[in-house]
Specification:
245 residues, alpha/beta, seven-stranded mixed β-sheet
Length: 245
């Protein structure tokens, strides 16, 4: 198992292309790196160091909300992330900001954190969602030790074109915010039973188009693509073949 220090992470992220003032939306596996001195906190510190005080680090903090039925409860302040140790670490980082959309919330630290958390989108990936704002910011979409299958931004494209293998449903449950409880319902574009996604071919297309930066950090393969490149290339493929994803 490779030993990984903060300097290794910083060097790798800078070689990948991350620099001060930028925004990064990160899917990450701590285990994939090897043995990281300082654990998840070192990874968060490294991203924040690479992005600088003017940058913004964003991660998903999804928690399978609503899949258990209307009795599900999501507490904006207290429900832990189920997206890995690094995501959970950022969720509790000083000055973190958390969005309020229970099915697909994000956590952010940095310059744009407050505006991302202030989004009040109803559907997961609407034009007023944090994910749309990440495209407008041309954020880096970073896959650290994980593959294209977990890349949430592809779901924005599916919602945007309303792919035929998904259908709109209403998901409901209880949201707790600042101690106040309320019943909420959200429109969700749910995949039709028996249909599976495969984002691998789109990831391979992006790599072949030369828009993906890649770097090895410790034992992890790390890939990064700008949000606008991902959006434009994927939309082009969906116009050719609506079932491509």
């Amino acid at each position: 198992m490779t030993e990984v220090a903060r300097r290794d992470l910083l060097d790798g992220l800078e070689t990948l292309g991350l620099s001060t003032g930028q925004t990064a939306f990160v899917h990450a596996s701590l285990r994939s790196l090897g043995h990281v001195h300082g654990g998840a906190a070192t990874v968060v510190e490294s991203f924040l160091g690479a992005l600088g005080e003017a940058g913004t680090l964003v991660m998903p903090m999804f928690h399978d909300f609503f899949w258990g039925g209307a009795q599900q409860v999501w507490d904006r302040q207290n429900t832990p992330s189920r997206m890995g140790a690094i995501s959970e670490c950022l969720r509790t980082w000083p000055e973190n900001q958390r969005s309020a959309h229970a099915p697909h919330p994000v956590v952010a630290v940095g310059r744009h954190a407050e505006e991302l958390a202030a989004c009040r989108n109803r559907s997961d990936f609407a034009f007023d969602s944090p994910f749309q704002r990440l495209i407008e910011l041309d954020a880096w979409i970073v896959l650290l030790g994980v593959d294209w299958r977990v890349c949430t931004m592809f779901h924005l494209l599916e919602e945007r074109v309303e792919v035929e293998y998904r259908q709109w449903v209403e998901l409901s449950g209880t949201v707790v915010d600042g101690g106040a409880r309320r019943h909420e319902s959200y429109p969700f574009l749910q995949r039709v039973s028996g249909v599976a996604n495969d984002f691998g071919p789109m990831g391979a297309h992006l790599e072949g188009a030369g828009v993906v930066h890649e770097q090895r950090i410790g034992d992890a393969r790390v890939r990064a693509v700008r949000a606008r490149d991902l959006y434009d290339q994927t939309m082009r493929m969906l116009r050719r073949d609506p079932l491509f994803l």
